[in-house]
Amino acid sequence: MALCAIALTIRCYMRCPFWDEWELVSDIAKGARPWNWHWLWSQHNEHRVATTRLLVWLDVSAFGAKNVSLFVEMYLVQLLHWGFLCYAVERWTHFSRPLKRTIQGVFGFCLFNLVQGENLTWAFQVSFLLCIALATATLLLISFYERVPRLLLSCLGAVPLIAATNLSAGLLIGPIGLLLAWMKHVPRRYIIAIGLTFLASVLFYFHGYSNPDPSHSPMLAVRDPLNVVAYLLVYMDAGWIPFAHRYGVLGLASLIVFFALAIRGIRYRRRLTAFEYFCLFECAFVIAVATSTAAGRAHFGLWQAGSSRYQSFGMLYWAALFSLALITIEQNKPAWSRRARQTMLAWMVCSSVYTPLLWYAHSARSDKHLRACSVLMRDPTDVEAQRTLYFDAGTFPSALTLLRRVWGP
After folding, report:
1. Model-level pTM greater than 0.85?
2. CB of 394 within 8 A of CB of 24?
3. What is the pLDDT of residues 5-45, one digit of tens each?
4. What are the two backbone dihedrals, phi and then psi, of residue 156, each rounded to the nearest 5 degrees?
5. Helix, strand, or coil here: 85?
6. How far apart are CA 142 and CA 137, in angstroms?
């Protein structure tokens, strides 16, 4: 699946900026630099994207503004993400070898699944993948804190602050990590460090914050809770049903299983392994992210809940939930363990039937973008090309000037 993801990225590669990236390139063309704190930390919709701004500036300044460095960084993040998970399962757990291989395979399958194709073909989305990887690293380090070098644990508190410079979802790592640290009886000094940096990230994030959509506030979502729930359910099951739909049946089933396993974990928490703690809190983190997204975006319609850019979160949730279920079965019904692993493998194989369809859909979309890029570089006034790439001719003309100068004739 990782090779398919890399092949899709190569097939759909486009050097032109797309959508949000135009704003960053335009700012750089006007003189914005990483040492300009106001620009680096300024609001981008509801997010603070300081890390993404830094990476885009580096791509423009050192790598010819062709997005190649951003895609390399995306896959470096994904490979390190999967590699750390594999290392933790291999070295820090005592599961049977077949179970270890299955868990490692499940996470690899989900981390590189083409259902998140938007995040694999749009360079700006490095912000999503980095935030998710930081969440996983944080929860793994806390879950296995007895095995982690103290120096590394001392640096753990900085993660909520770093994550908040990628997406607003990074703010949720703090409270989830604190709860996990409390349940795992992590030494108080580390809990205090995480708490203080989380508080700092919140203060930094909300300093000078303004609602990007004055006509709607996430607090208004409480007026229509059923719409928020529906959005959440579609968000959760879009990884396995990657087309527009309104019924989150798989999402609902998964939440029932998760809460059943969570209640069981609370009742028998002394028997929980560190990796089970990790899986439970990884799922909780994604549910929190999905719920906050639903509160802020449900008014746009359920169609947006199935966007492929959200499925990097969604597929991580499924990987953790599947792993948790497999571990529970092996520990309580050893005779069923082999059949459960075979069922898991069959599920992944069957779900791969969507791969050619996803490849075709993303390739067709990419071809349209490539044509628009070519047209826009020749004729910046072409309305169709502007609409396709979300280019605002009145706001971002300096971006085109910069790209023409950097790319040459």
Report:
1. yes
2. no
3. 999 999 999 999 998 899 999 999 998 898 888 898 888 88
4. -60, -35
5. helix
6. 9
